[in-house]
Amino acid sequence: MDFIIKLLNLSLYSVIGFFGILFLFSILVGLVIVLFYVVVNRFGFKKQISLKTILGIFILTYAIICSSVIYCFNKDIDAVSFRYYGKYGYVKKKNFTDKIIKLSESIKTNPTSSNNYFFRGITYANNFYFNKALKDLNKALEINPNMPTAINYIGHIYIIKGKYDEAEEYCKKAIKLSPNFSKPYFNLAMIYKYKKDYDMALDKVNKSIECDSSFYEAYSLRSEIFLIKEKFQKAINDLEKVIELNPQSKRFTEGRIKKILKRSN
User: Fold this and answer.
1) CB atoms < 10 A from the CB of 172, how many?
2) Percent of the chain with pLDDT strictly greater than 90
3) What is the spatial distance between Cα 38 and Cα 49, in angstroms, rounded to a whole number?
4) Cα 134 off chain centre by
């Protein structure tokens, strides 16, 4: 059943990114088969091929290609990972493999180091291997249960997976261990935003900014919440703060400001 879910997700999200190539290749195969069908039936060969047979061959070909990719990439990748491959493309960081090899060697040398498991876990997560990431992060917590960074990161992954209740539980655990750690508050703000509890979301993102006034992602999130609450000027003020803290985002953020100005007029 899990394999079928993976296959369906792969099909649904294959329009963009790496799987776009796969999708286009499948269409090309389908067109060749259809062309073959037309030629065979048009010129009156003795044994004609039905359209139903052609469609069956196309679906089978596409399923085989998708199945091969699933096997080749990672048998442990879950459906959520496929959504991220579809949305962003299969962006393998340049040094991803090297990092994993080095961290794996470090784990063999020092298997009691929680940091090694933690860093390998976030490396997996940054490349959308969420199941492997969770396994390593949980291992880090087995070694050192008092790691708010690992606990918060598990919460972050659960947000990506859409498991908001589990995510909320982990973020609160991280805050309990480290009350001035800004990121769990930020993650809680995201959870409450997704749950459409905008007052709670605003309260938590404010707390995140209070803990770390240079955390530009928090200003960006608060801008989104202000926009939902139709507090346009406050949303713009926060985006201007984002540009101040992260000048590289200037072009994109100015585009967001323009959209808010249009909406407010």
Assistant:
1) 15
2) 57
3) 9
4) 14
Tokens of 64: 């085989």
Question: Alpha-carbon distance 145 to 132, whole Å?
Answer: 19
Tell how far CA 182 is from the center of its chain. Answer: 21
Cβ neighbours around 19 below 10 Å, total:
25
Q: Give the DSSP letter string of 119-169.
A: HHHHHHHHTT-HHHHHHHHHHHHHH-S--HHHHHHHHHHHHHTT-HHHHHH
55-91 pLDDT, tens digit per residue, is 777 777 766 666 655 554 444 444 444 444 443 333 4
User: DSSP per residue over 192-238, as a string?
Assistant: HHHTT-HHHHHHHHHHHHHH-TT-HHHHHHHHHHHHHTT-HHHHHHH
Q: How many helices (H) and strands (E) does the chain have?
A: 14, 0
Mean of per-residue pLDDT scores for the chain = 80
- 3 state SS of 100: helix
Is the predicted pLDDT of residue 117 greater than 90, yes or no?
Answer: yes
Contacts of 41 (CB under 8 A, 6+ apart): 48, 49
Q: Are 92 and 61 in contact (CB under 8 A)?
A: no
Dig out the tokens for 180 from the structure.
């001035």
SS3 assignment, position 172:
helix
Among 189, 263, 192, 195, CA closest to 230: 263
Q: The pTM is what?
A: 0.69
Query: What's the burial of 166, exposed, middle or buried (CB within 10 Å: 0-12/13-18/19+)?
Result: middle
